[in-house]
Amino acid sequence: MYVRTALQLEATQALFARLLTQRLSKLNVLLEIPRLHISLGRLHGGVVKVCRFGPGLCQLGVAFASGPSAEVRLRLLEFRPDAQTLDLELEELRLSGFAGTGLANLVKRKLLEVAASRANAQLPGLVTLGHGMRWQLHLGPLWHKVLSDPRLRQAIESQLGLEPDLSLRARAVRLEEGKALLEVEGWF
Fold first, then answer.
1. Which tens digits make up the pLDDT trace of 13-33?
2. In this structure, how many other beta carbons lie within 10 angstroms of the beta carbon of residue 95?
3. Closest by alpha carbon to 115, among 72, 84, 83?
4. Are strands 46-54 and 38-44 parallel, antiparallel or unpaired?
5. pTM for the whole thing?
6. Which residues, including other chains, have CB under 8 Å from residue 149's CB and lie 6 or more apart?
7. Rounded alpha-carbon distances, angstroms, from residue 81 to 8, 110, 126
8. Which residues, 6+ apart, have CB-to-CB distance to 94 below 8 Å?
9. Closest to 40 (Cα-Cα) out of 94, 92, 93, 101
Protein backbone atom coordinates (compact mmCIF):
# COMPACT_ATOMS: atom_id res chain seq x y z
CA MET A 1 0.00 0.00 0.00
CA TYR A 2 1.39 3.40 -1.00
CA VAL A 3 0.77 6.68 0.78
CA ARG A 4 1.36 10.12 -0.72
CA THR A 5 4.21 11.52 1.37
CA ALA A 6 6.19 14.75 1.46
CA LEU A 7 9.67 15.03 2.97
CA GLN A 8 11.92 17.98 3.62
CA LEU A 9 15.59 17.11 3.32
CA GLU A 10 18.25 19.47 4.60
CA ALA A 11 21.96 19.34 3.83
CA THR A 12 24.33 21.57 5.74
CA GLN A 13 27.26 23.00 3.84
CA ALA A 14 29.58 20.75 5.89
CA LEU A 15 27.66 17.61 4.89
CA PHE A 16 27.55 18.72 1.24
CA ALA A 17 31.32 19.39 1.27
CA ARG A 18 32.00 15.96 2.79
CA LEU A 19 29.82 14.16 0.20
CA LEU A 20 31.35 16.11 -2.68
CA THR A 21 34.89 15.45 -1.40
CA GLN A 22 34.15 11.71 -1.36
CA ARG A 23 33.28 11.90 -5.07
CA LEU A 24 36.14 14.22 -6.01
CA SER A 25 38.78 12.18 -4.16
CA LYS A 26 38.18 9.35 -6.67
CA LEU A 27 38.20 11.64 -9.71
CA ASN A 28 40.87 11.07 -12.35
CA VAL A 29 40.09 12.86 -15.60
CA LEU A 30 41.93 14.72 -18.33
CA LEU A 31 40.36 18.16 -18.68
CA GLU A 32 40.47 19.74 -22.09
CA ILE A 33 38.54 22.09 -24.34
CA PRO A 34 38.13 19.93 -27.46
CA ARG A 35 37.27 22.48 -30.15
CA LEU A 36 40.07 24.79 -29.05
CA HIS A 37 42.50 21.87 -28.58
CA ILE A 38 43.49 23.14 -25.14
CA SER A 39 44.48 20.63 -22.49
CA LEU A 40 44.11 21.96 -18.97
CA GLY A 41 45.80 18.97 -17.38
CA ARG A 42 44.72 15.96 -15.37
CA LEU A 43 42.51 16.31 -12.33
CA HIS A 44 42.78 13.74 -9.58
CA GLY A 45 42.46 13.59 -5.83
CA GLY A 46 40.06 16.51 -5.36
CA VAL A 47 39.04 17.99 -2.01
CA VAL A 48 36.52 20.72 -1.21
CA LYS A 49 38.31 23.64 0.46
CA VAL A 50 35.36 26.06 0.58
CA CYS A 51 31.64 25.32 0.64
CA ARG A 52 29.23 28.12 1.51
CA PHE A 53 25.49 28.33 1.09
CA GLY A 54 23.70 31.64 1.30
CA PRO A 55 20.30 32.90 0.19
CA GLY A 56 20.11 31.70 -3.42
CA LEU A 57 23.90 31.17 -3.63
CA CYS A 58 26.38 28.32 -3.53
CA GLN A 59 30.13 28.95 -3.46
CA LEU A 60 32.62 26.11 -3.87
CA GLY A 61 36.40 26.01 -3.81
CA VAL A 62 38.05 22.77 -4.92
CA ALA A 63 41.74 21.83 -4.92
CA PHE A 64 43.26 18.80 -6.63
CA ALA A 65 46.29 16.74 -5.65
CA SER A 66 47.53 17.22 -9.22
CA GLY A 67 47.90 20.98 -8.50
CA PRO A 68 44.94 22.79 -10.10
CA SER A 69 42.17 24.49 -8.17
CA ALA A 70 38.85 26.07 -9.04
CA GLU A 71 36.42 28.46 -7.38
CA VAL A 72 32.80 28.55 -8.46
CA ARG A 73 29.83 30.66 -7.40
CA LEU A 74 26.36 29.61 -8.56
CA ARG A 75 23.13 31.54 -8.17
CA LEU A 76 19.83 29.68 -7.97
CA LEU A 77 17.57 31.93 -10.03
CA GLU A 78 14.41 29.86 -9.85
CA PHE A 79 13.06 26.39 -9.26
CA ARG A 80 10.21 25.38 -11.56
CA PRO A 81 8.40 22.43 -9.92
CA ASP A 82 6.17 21.76 -12.95
CA ALA A 83 9.23 21.19 -15.16
CA GLN A 84 11.41 19.80 -12.32
CA THR A 85 14.06 22.30 -13.41
CA LEU A 86 16.52 24.53 -11.58
CA ASP A 87 17.45 27.74 -13.39
CA LEU A 88 21.03 28.60 -12.45
CA GLU A 89 23.66 31.16 -13.31
CA LEU A 90 27.39 30.65 -13.06
CA GLU A 91 28.37 34.00 -11.50
CA GLU A 92 32.03 33.28 -10.97
CA LEU A 93 34.56 30.73 -12.20
CA ARG A 94 38.22 31.12 -11.33
CA LEU A 95 40.82 28.56 -12.26
CA SER A 96 44.42 28.36 -11.15
CA GLY A 97 47.24 25.85 -11.46
CA PHE A 98 46.03 24.60 -14.84
CA ALA A 99 48.08 24.64 -18.01
CA GLY A 100 46.37 27.31 -20.10
CA THR A 101 44.64 28.92 -17.11
CA GLY A 102 44.83 32.41 -18.56
CA LEU A 103 43.08 31.40 -21.76
CA ALA A 104 40.59 29.16 -19.95
CA ASN A 105 39.55 32.07 -17.71
CA LEU A 106 38.78 34.05 -20.89
CA VAL A 107 36.57 31.33 -22.41
CA LYS A 108 34.37 30.46 -19.45
CA ARG A 109 31.30 29.89 -21.65
CA LYS A 110 33.27 27.26 -23.56
CA LEU A 111 34.16 25.54 -20.27
CA LEU A 112 30.46 25.57 -19.32
CA GLU A 113 29.64 23.95 -22.67
CA VAL A 114 32.25 21.22 -22.08
CA ALA A 115 30.92 20.57 -18.56
CA ALA A 116 27.33 20.39 -19.85
CA SER A 117 28.37 18.00 -22.62
CA ARG A 118 30.12 15.68 -20.14
CA ALA A 119 27.17 15.79 -17.73
CA ASN A 120 24.73 14.98 -20.53
CA ALA A 121 26.97 12.13 -21.73
CA GLN A 122 26.58 10.51 -18.30
CA LEU A 123 22.91 11.42 -17.76
CA PRO A 124 21.20 12.44 -21.01
CA GLY A 125 18.98 15.50 -20.64
CA LEU A 126 20.49 16.60 -17.33
CA VAL A 127 21.71 20.07 -18.41
CA THR A 128 20.49 22.64 -20.92
CA LEU A 129 22.52 25.75 -21.64
CA GLY A 130 20.83 29.13 -21.69
CA HIS A 131 22.05 32.60 -22.61
CA GLY A 132 25.42 33.77 -21.27
CA MET A 133 26.34 31.81 -18.17
CA ARG A 134 22.79 30.66 -17.44
CA TRP A 135 21.85 27.02 -17.51
CA GLN A 136 19.15 24.63 -16.40
CA LEU A 137 19.54 21.49 -14.32
CA HIS A 138 16.72 19.03 -15.03
CA LEU A 139 15.90 16.78 -12.07
CA GLY A 140 14.07 14.12 -14.11
CA PRO A 141 17.27 12.31 -15.18
CA LEU A 142 18.52 12.40 -11.56
CA TRP A 143 15.27 10.92 -10.21
CA HIS A 144 15.42 8.20 -12.86
CA LYS A 145 19.05 7.41 -11.92
CA VAL A 146 18.25 7.25 -8.20
CA LEU A 147 15.20 5.06 -8.71
CA SER A 148 16.84 2.70 -11.22
CA ASP A 149 20.07 2.17 -9.26
CA PRO A 150 19.59 -0.75 -6.83
CA ARG A 151 22.20 0.59 -4.37
CA LEU A 152 20.59 4.04 -4.22
CA ARG A 153 17.08 2.57 -3.88
CA GLN A 154 18.28 0.35 -1.05
CA ALA A 155 19.89 3.33 0.71
CA ILE A 156 16.59 5.26 0.55
CA GLU A 157 14.66 2.26 1.78
CA SER A 158 17.04 1.48 4.65
CA GLN A 159 17.78 5.08 5.74
CA LEU A 160 14.27 6.51 5.37
CA GLY A 161 12.16 3.35 5.60
CA LEU A 162 10.49 4.27 2.31
CA GLU A 163 10.06 2.46 -0.98
CA PRO A 164 10.34 5.21 -3.63
CA ASP A 165 8.76 4.99 -7.08
CA LEU A 166 8.75 7.07 -10.26
CA SER A 167 6.15 9.50 -8.84
CA LEU A 168 8.97 11.15 -6.86
CA ARG A 169 9.05 14.92 -7.54
CA ALA A 170 10.65 17.96 -5.96
CA ARG A 171 8.22 20.54 -4.57
CA ALA A 172 10.83 23.12 -3.59
CA VAL A 173 14.58 23.71 -3.72
CA ARG A 174 16.15 26.51 -1.70
CA LEU A 175 19.60 27.67 -0.73
CA GLU A 176 19.68 29.40 2.65
CA GLU A 177 22.39 30.56 5.00
CA GLY A 178 24.51 27.47 5.73
CA LYS A 179 22.17 24.89 4.18
CA ALA A 180 20.37 23.58 1.11
CA LEU A 181 16.75 22.45 1.38
CA LEU A 182 14.92 20.00 -0.84
CA GLU A 183 11.23 19.17 -0.43
CA VAL A 184 10.15 16.01 -2.24
CA GLU A 185 6.81 14.27 -2.58
CA GLY A 186 5.69 10.99 -4.03
CA TRP A 187 3.94 7.74 -3.40
CA PHE A 188 5.88 5.69 -0.88
1. 999 999 899 988 988 877 776
2. 19
3. 72
4. unpaired
5. 0.83
6. none
7. 15, 29, 15
8. 70, 71, 105
9. 101
